[in-house]
Specification:
The chain has helices at about 10-15, 25-35, 40-60, 65-85, 85-95, 105-115. The termini are far apart. It contains six helices and no strands.
Length: about 140
Amino acid sequence: MTEFVRPGPLRWLAYAFGAGLPARHRTWVLHDVTARTWVLRHLTRAVVQIAPFGVAVYLVVPGSPGIRVTAVVMGAVIGLVYSVAFVEAAAEHRAIKAGYPEGTAAATRRERRRRGTGPHSGPSRGPTPRTPAPPLRTPTNGGTR
């Protein structure tokens, strides 16, 4: 496995907010978006991005503490839902920013799952069998519709 250089806390914080990292962190970025825990890593970055706004809303918006907490929690939930909806695109964008060709992150994750080897691939379960959909019954093939 290729060694990678982890960014320090301040660089990671900038990276969490979308900043690019220097070339020496290139392999770490690919690891970050392809490791077995890549979705959790993405969610951690999302929480770091949402937290300052949540604190600001709680401190600035007038109202009872219960209503402010509810507003912050609901806003965070909506933010995390959107973050999960775009998790693959965001991971791919980070890999492209690090200098990898488009599709590298997805291909690396696919290959690690297929091989089922390496410290970041997780347990191998083999390919998932696909059950074909039942045929649609129509009046021409004996159906009632």
